[in-house]
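Help!! Second protein's tokens look totally different from the first
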Amino acid sequence: MPVYRCVIPEGSLTYDQRAEIATAFTDVHCGLSAAPRNFVQVVFLEATAGFELPDTHGSGTIKADTPYFVAGGNRGGRPPELKAKILAGLLKRFSAIAGVPTDQVSGRISEAPASWTMEAGKVLPEPGEEPAEWYEHAAVSG
């Protein structure tokens, strides 16, 4: 948790671009939320125009009006301003790395209570209440 599903046109991104986007998403999310880096999951789904995607942290489906779409699912409890900053950062980095105009990328972040989610067999605490040992692997490699 969080899970970011990047819906992309078939064959549009290379493996290296996907890897770079995954790292960038981790940097954005953890840089703004202070969540442990090992929590962030990024998945790429290839789809055709007009796709519908189940909303894993809400109800119903997500319909995008752009070829590239980022569907985030996070723990609830963060201020709306922080959620907006995270989404803006994700979309900006995605656009830059993918080499597509910003008007071709959209997204949203849905939330669910922390108590609905498990990580490594433990129910997650509210954002900011994680024990210190969860940050042991927080350093950026490189």
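Here's the second one for comparison:
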Amino acid sequence: MEQPQRAVDRRQTMILFKDVSKVYGNGVAAINNLSLRIYKDEFVFLMGASGAGKSTLIKLLMKEEDPTSGKISVNSRDLSMIRRGAVQRYRRQIGVVFQDFRLLEHKTVFGNVAFAMEIMGKSRKEINEKVEASLSLMGLSKKADEYPRNLSGGEQQRVALARAIVNSPRILIADEPTGNLDPANAEQIMYLLELINSQGTTVIVATHAQEMARKMGRRILYLDHGARNDDMSSGGAGAEEARAAGDRVNISSAFGEFAANVPEEEYSSLFTEDNSVSDEGGK
């Protein structure tokens, strides 16, 4: 009897860890023979107890740390081949959002977001256009001239998110983005992350919010002492079925008024810039 053929997964790989370990000088193995694959346009939750290796994994992706062994590729580029002078350019394709916002207190909302473009030497015209679009997407247009101290926690996190996407990253890493927020603001942030993902950005969310992650029906990667815990990780097929069945938090409804006021033409230009990187020195 002829065996049925297995479906070929033709999705493009964005991030690949192959047998990666990271051992620090004190002998602590933060990452232990880790292999994983994250696809282009995918939305993935990264979970695990404190000390499981989530922060080290992010540092490896950002090239803040180098692996002790193994190979890491991003967008088909071997990170070990990126020269020191090209690291900053490589990082341009990654936006990062932190739990504690990390806003510049002496700059306005507009200034905080613009700063991410100013340090790259962008023109004032481009800065104005993209910052305005980014703030519009976040529902912050009327807060452009405010300072961080005058904003709520949810608003500060949205400023941080606007700053992370204003340079059109291929990958967005959110490290505990809802950890300091109440449930309503947490749902707003998750809705915005889904919206960003829908425009083609690969999104990785490191979180302890297990119930939220499960309800969203996205793939969950669990780390345990620096290694994959496949007994707890949820696969892509099951996640897609859960999403199709609507077995997730209704984020669009929870933040429907905001979502209805975000016209696509206001933000689609944020996700079109080519931020690819070569092995050579920066531009």
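Reply: Different proteins will give different token patterns, so don't panic. The two ends are 58 Å apart (CA to CA).
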